[in-house]
């Protein structure tokens, strides 16, 4: 039972990290695309790459943190 609980915590950590990272990545990607004057439809590609990259990295780290925290006994 504890394993299922730990797995659900890690999954929730990855999901929350991906959502927060995606939101931050979208805002940051939009800002950078406007700042560097990325032309035309390349803005959408640039914003998408920034969003997915940020979501993946933040989700990975929040999932790893949840996994580390899952092993602690209080």
Spell out the key features of this protein.
single chain; 74 residues; mainly alpha; rod-shaped
In short:
85% of the residues lie in helices and 0% in strands. It has 74 residues and is mainly α. The chain crosses the membrane at residues 12-31, 51-70.
Rounded mean pLDDT is 92
Share of β-strand residues: under 5%
Sequence of secondary-structure elements: HH
Q: What's the helical proportion of residues? A: over 70%
Structural class: mainly alpha
Low-confidence spans: none
User: What gyration radius follows from the Cα positions, in whole Å?
Assistant: 16 Å
Report the end-to-end length measured between terminal Cα atoms: 17 Å
Q: What oligomeric arrangement do these chains adopt?
A: single chain
The overall strand count is 0
Query: So how many helices?
Result: 2
Overall shape: it is rod-shaped
Main pleated-sheet profile:
none
GO cellular component, one term: TIM23 mitochondrial import inner membrane translocase complex
Family: Belongs to the MGR2 family.
Subcellular location: Membrane
Transmembrane segments: 12-31, 51-70
Give a description of the structure.
This protein has two helices and no strands. It is mainly α and about 70 residues long. It is rod-shaped. The chain has a domain of about 45 residues. Helix content is about 85%, strand content about 0%. The two termini are about 15 Å apart. The mean pLDDT is about 90. It is found in: Membrane. InterPro entries: Romo1/Mgr2 (IPR018450). Belongs to the MGR2 family. Keywords: Membrane, Transmembrane, Transmembrane helix.
């Amino acid at each position: 039972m504890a394993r299922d609980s730990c797995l659900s915590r890690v999954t929730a950590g990855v999901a929350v990290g991906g959502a927060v990272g995606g939101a931050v990545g979208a805002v940051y990607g939009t800002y950078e695309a406007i700042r560097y004057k990325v032309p035309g439809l390349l803005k959408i590609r640039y914003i998408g790459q920034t969003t997915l990259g940020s979501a993946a990295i933040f989700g990975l780290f929040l999932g790893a943190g949840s996994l580390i925290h899952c092993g602690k006994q209080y």
